[in-house]
Amino acid sequence: xxxxxxxxxxxxxxxxxxxxxxxxxxxxxxxxxxxxxxxxxxxxxxxxxxxxxxxxxxxxxxxxxxxxxxxxxxxxxxxxxxxxxxxxxxxxxxxxxxxxxxxxxxxxxxxxxxxxxxxxxxxxxxxxxxxxxxxxxxxxxxxxxxxxxxxxxxxxxxxxxxxxxxxxxxxxxxxxxxxxxxxxxxxxxxxxxxxxxxxxxxxxxxxxxxxxxxxxxxxx
Amino acid sequence: xxxxxxxxxxxxxxxxxxxxxxxxxxxxxxxxxxxxxxxxxxxxxxxxxxxxxxxxxxxxxxxxxxxxxxxxxxxxxxxxxxxxxxxxxxxxxxxxxxxxxxxxxxxxxxxxxxxxxxxxxxxxxxxxxxxxxxxxxxxxxxxxxxxxxxxxxxxxxxxxxxxxxxxxxxxxxxxxxxxxxxxxxxxxxxxxxxxxxxxxxxxxxxxxxxxxxxxxxxxxxxxxxxxxxxxxxxxxxxxxxxxxxxxxxxxxxxxxxxx
Lengths: 220, 259
Ligand SMILES: Nc1ncnc2c1ncn2[C@@H]1O[C@H](COP(=O)(O)OP(=O)(O)O)[C@@H](O)[C@H]1O
Ligand SMILES: [Mg+2]
Description:
A: MetI-like fold; B: alpha/beta; 4-stranded antiparallel beta sheet; binds magnesium ion
């Protein structure tokens, strides 16, 4: 690495950090929150065996898991305008990522719920609980400790997947690196620097995951 | 009129009839012991009575109100369950709640009772089972016997009309069995109505006032405890008692005399 490149990378760092803070992190947090709500609903509909909705949930998970996310982004951003629905890059990305998180995490949550011993439900019923009281007070809190590590995985995965939004004209970390490199031709170093920014965010989340697991452990 | 009446309960798993046709009626204050070899359908019977398993047919009448064991509305099943208690072989304490929270959850969450009042009742119930000092322990930090005593406190706290016990001591070491049986004996003395599936013959002999022997999904013999243990009517009862390690006070007598 020459001194010129070193200075260039130091200059570029805040220019990569800014889109991380303004775009990547909000996009991740917003999509993950909405996605988790969708996931919980999708999982509960299946666990509660609600007739039609249960089929609809399976169908949704099937479609989303079996098509590439970048294709979904293209359909939403470039395809929908042809039927009159025009979304800006950011909302289009939020839509696609939320729906994707919803599908994958619903399977995580469903499996976690099903891993709670059926005796817990029996005992809740015999304590006079309704199905939803049992779910929200007894089953889901216990499913949380099982679901937490795989959900953390999904969150970390999502941070990296947001780079796909580059393809729908969202100026996030990767796009910013690409723009800077286009002027200087130091693609190798700038893309490496972009990777480092992702590495920093994900390492931070990894530490949070450890703490979270410890906290959950203490509560039983 | 009896307080609780199960009539013509039937249940098969696939083609396998597990409960052929069982009717039991229980008076207020009764302690009914249900005996029988394993696999005879005792757990299934209790699970059907608690609507944890769907029976193929039969009814349950509690305080004069009759419910179909095969079909029941969501409202009725919750209403019915709030009048019964259930103690499981494997305790099934809520893993995410402390001992006290296990006891009060049914009061505050299910029955919407005031928190303070629920806590007072909860502490009283824990005191009754001798575990006041463990009130803030999570189930994973309690011994099996302690867990089962908390489960009993949880069952009695809402003051149910009847409590079903499914082999409450079968998962326990002998020295822990005793502490649980003592608590149950106390409940019996307090006049709590109980139906107890058990292999503890001595407990049935000393504490139950009525005893039922179930084999292959039917009732072989149902009698008051003295008759059941001293003058059993059925040969199969005598055979069953012989097979257990229980030692009768005297000879087992049939109607015809010593056998
Ligand atoms: N969920 C189930 N599915 C199929 N068969 C079952 C199920 N539960 C119990 N059985 C069968 O029903 C019979 C009675 O079981 P159970 O009621 O547990 O007997 P007990 O409690 O008297 O030992 C057994 O043969 C058992 O294999
Ligand atoms: Mg059993």
